[in-house]
Protein: Regulator of G-protein signaling 8
Amino acid sequence: MAALLIPRRNRGMRTRLGCLSHKSDSYNDFTAILPDKPNWALKRLSTEEATRWADSFDVLLSHKYGLAAFRAFLKTEFSEENLEFWLACEDFKKTRSAAKLASKAQRIFEEFIDVQAPREVNIDFQTRELTRRNVQEPSLSCFDQAQGKVHSLMEKDSYPRFLRSKIYTDLLSQTQRRLS
Structure:
């Protein structure tokens, strides 16, 4: 009887693990990825704008719907912490209050940089240690090296996969179908 239970339990475990490891990058309903009135936004997104996202990674990051689509893609790859860190650094650079600078720097470090951080980004030991020292006396540039490494990682690794992804190609198809 125990022999009969083991295969059934393994089958259930395989199913659960299969669901966890399955990374679907298909989005037929783009309302989940587009911010602020998504149906209206998708109707306003032109094929030309969506096509420009392929021109450069920075063009993609500078477009709010491109950013939303890229975030949705990163979620399917379980790596959205990279984009969230990059965005947190961009926001950090706009900090004008010296009092807020230290607390924001500490929060970003604890959330993304520290070993075992809840949303730890993949950076090398030297960059992590330099950032640790920089946060001790924070300035607007204390995350520059770490942010640059993460930007480079996304640009060389995630961005090309995004451009080939079903999320992006489906989004382009939908904008082109509207023109027909």
User: Anything to note?
Assistant: The first helix runs from residue 2 to 21. The domain at 46-177 is CATH 1.10.167.10 (Regulator of G-protein Signalling 4; domain 2). Residues 1-31, 34-40 have pLDDT under 50 and may be disordered.
